[in-house]
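Hi P.,

Sorry for the delay on this. The queue was packed all week, but I finally got your sequence through. Input first:
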Amino acid sequence: MHNKKIIGILLLGFILRIILLIVNTYYVTLPQGGFDAVGFEKQAYLIYTSGYSNLDYVYYFSSGARLLELLGSFVYCVTGREPLFLGLIMVFLGCYSILLGYKAAYLLWNSHKYALTSAWLIALFPLLMLHSAIFLREIPINVLLLLSIISFIRYWKDKNKKYIFSFLFYVFFASLFHSGLSFILVGLGYYVIFFTRKVRRGIKLMTLLLLISSLFIMNSTGFGLNKLGGSFDKSLELFQERENYELKGNSAYPPWLMLSRGLNDLWKIPLRNITFLFSPLVPFIVSSLWHVIGVLDALLYLFMFYVLYKRRRVFKLNDTAKAIIVMMLFTVFIFSLGVSNVGTAIRHRAKIAPILIVVFSGVNQINLKRN
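Then the structure:
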């Protein structure tokens, strides 16, 4: 019975995504289907036509979005320049994320009902549908993060070390698409140190040392920090340069949210976290039809976070869900520092949307009195 239901959800998700793909490819450019998506496709074709003999693979594997261009060029080696095929891959990955969302929610909550809710929400979530029809890195990241969370839940349940290695593997590959996702591991370290009671002090101390060492290595090598200027030292300078550029657009954050005075502006970080999650609703920045769609998107996040807060007692019953939320909030923190306009915020928060939905699907329905 449940298998039939998930097949129905997958079929509906596929049909909706195919329709959006056809509209974007042949009729009207969809929101977020313009500048970046078109640029990624053009670069993929350029790599394909230029050949691979002198290609700097290290550059492409360490530059986030450039990896998507390289992978797209491999597709063109088989199909020729047919952007529709790139879109079809995104459609199938988008449908796969629905199935993974179902699986993750079932493992997390041990309920087919909650798992089906997760699948429905991922299938019908507006930005997830939209990104499944556009050549952007959001959907591949969604898939890798869901795979990592599934491995994490399995490790938490079974204590089988192979799952922690697969968790690290998927997080690493997600970080190749966006280096900020490496902060998931920082969030995990924070959770182990401050939220776990059964873990011995020696393990907590080891985790703390690993966390400090990892941050030092990231600062020294630049891995995980290419969006922050390559080091923590350069991050504030990069924020100021980026915000001076992005302030020119009609979707830029208001000037009072900009990090323009270095350490004196640290108090703005919580406000930027809120703006990242709920703009253009909070603060209200609506100057185009696309922003109206953004308001709908922000309302969905606002509702989910309201439910998570109102029913936060659930996290006392499910430590795994609590750990996932902590890791997710660390990515929100790092993303919010590097984003200074509404459009980029909407796209970046969609990277974590399926994970949020997996947790929300159980928190919203679990019977607290019975449990």
